[in-house]
Write a structure and sequence with these properties.
Number of strands: 21
Shape: elongated
Strand content: 15-25%
Strand order of the largest sheet: 8-21-20-19-9-16-18-17
Distance between the termini: 67 Å
Largest sheet: 8 strands, mixed
Amino acid sequence: MTERADIDTEGPDPAGRRGAVDTRAATSPARAMPALGLTTAEVAERVARGEVNDVPVRSSRSVTDIVRANVFTRFNLIIGVLWVIMMFVAPWQDTFFGYVILANTGIGIIQELRAKKTLDNLAVIGETRPMVRRDGRAAEISTSEIVLGDLIEIGPGDKIVVDGECVETDSLEVDESLLTGEADPVVKKPGDAMMSGSFVVAGGGAFTATKVGAEAYAAQLAEEASRFTLVHSELRSGISTILKYVTWLMVPTSIGLVISQLVVKNDEFKESIAYTVGGIVPMIPEGLVLLTSMAFAIGVIRLGRKQCLVQELPAIEGLARVDTVCLDKTGTLTEGGMDVTEVRPLYGADEAYVRKVLGALGESDPRPNASLQAIIDAYPDSEEWRCTESLPFSSARKYSGASFSEGNGENSTWLLGAPDVLLPAGDALLDEIEYLNHQGLRVLLLTRSGTELDAPDVAAGTRPHALVVLEQRLRPDASDTLRYFAEQDVEAKVISGDNAISVGAVAAKLDLPGAERTVDARSLPRERAEMAEVLDDNAVFGRVSPQQKRDMVGALQSKGHTVAMTGDGVNDVLALKDADIGVSMGAGSEATKAVAQIVLLNNSFATLPSVVAEGRRVIGNITRVATLFLVKTVYSVLLALLVVCTQVEYLFLPRHLTLLSTLTIGVPAFFLALAPNKERAKAHFVRRVMRYAIPGGIIAALATFSTYLLARAHYSGEGAREAETSAATLTLFLIAMWVLAIIARPYTWWRICLVAAMGVGFLLVMVVPWLQDMFKLKLVGTTMPWSAVAIAAAAAVLVELAFRWVDRRFPA
């Protein structure tokens, strides 16, 4: 059909046509032969000179960064110094806490390295692979293999990966909004600059790479977009805030404790040092940071096994907080492919002629969308027809077009697109189209224009020739996924550029609540507050423009919603960028994958529930176990202050608190942090944790110190210090166990077994002679041990009442 020299390709696109070099000009039928690109020898020469786009796109932190982040922490430094001191002044049993830190740090490094490996492997799968023309052949290569001067082919949805200059254009429109903030696409002509980080929204062409490697902005942009990061997370920033306050409390308290134990008391020097360190170490919630990093890392690994690439780690947390999911219909609820079910000629049009027009239109676009690909599959091209000018499909226009020389001396211009855009309001055809749309079918109008294709009013006064009826393929898992969101109190909003009635029919087939109330987005109010009201009251929206998608996300956010946006086309990019969480399909455009935080490499919408569940597991469980860690910090600080104020010996040796921390916090927290948790994540992490930690820690400290003072009055003579410590340890253990029992609710068989196992572990220490000697714990007599149990029981009741009062007085 066309006078086009197709150049051989490697790695065709899904349409089977990618790599074909289109020689048609945007506005002229004549055009020079296409550039052939660099030769193999020229590429080798540039590689030798280092003119390669070799800046690596890292999906994770480097090994050095991981080791540094886990080893060189503020609290590891403090504990490391105390550990070294204890090695010189105390028995080996009192240095356990140092070995625990070594083990924790090692586990953290190993888990993050596993997460890094998973992310790096997935990043290779989802890596951008541009089409580069060399030796006259177009082939997909890795971004890092581009050299200076390479000729790179581009089409709708392609991301501009390096800076360059246009060489060939075919109605090329580029969106530079991510760089300049300008929403309107920029029409490109040969000689125009191409900005890396922008993307193609319509048309196609080729450009020469003028900046590669570190000089190209794209390298920095891509690395930022896909870096494994632990920042901008409410969970991690909340923990950092808590640790900052802990440090402020710990420093003066520790100084007071040191002075109290070394200067005021006249105990043996080494023993005083040991008890002093025993008072400082438990103030540090060192395991909380490790457990958070480990929970995130394990989440990445779990999602990686489901072919889900988490480009920004906080996305796991963010999606757990989501209460509204905006879904693009095409590619999300429906599969990418379509089938032509019927062509209805209009007003006596000849069906054979209509089929010729459709075949020619299909051939006129070197990068067809799903609708046009279905037409190409159904209607072969006519060799006699020659395309003289083409207008690629644009989401903003809602139609595409082409002008032809039909071989018999006649010229014609045709448009193919949305009937409600190409037809005037009130046209009789719209009723017939609406009936088809109600059945969930997609309808395109083929119409002939009497003006030139580049005329501003090309769509005005056209003559309809046929309706093309297409059937969309529903994703088999879409209905179950929507049902999952409904069960989890997450509202689903379908936002599509297609006809509103057709979108509503598809949503109805998937049993989406509110599908019967479909809104045409062209009637939406422009004011954000008014738009937000309409969005809250309805679930399905059609004829949404790309800018409107962005505005709708903003309107929902203005109402306090946490919004996730899914999509795969260039018309979704702006909304994906502005949403709290952007989710792209792996087969989506490079532009959508560049701005999304999560990429579903298997293109399965059904993976989203797994991501939501993983996020809820991480956030909910870390919030639970953070209470355990911070109750310990609160009672440790308060016990130290009580010791300083009363001028008595400190209660515990490091080994005692190592034992307590292991049985009531460390081991249980590990299992609880990895347990299933379907509760939607809530905001205000610090407040939610501290409202339990402060009363729980205060009650535990006061009860334990009371037992210690009673024991000091009760015991005397040799072995009194050990007996006093043992009684206080028993009280503190029982209270901490009750806190653990509260945190472990709701009970399941394994949670009950976990709590019981920790109790059995402590019992063994208290009754097995060699464990008694190792931990320097031995209950003496019956009066004081039973008094310790009674005090602990009373404190446990107070903790229970305090937690219930907090729930009523300060609801989350």
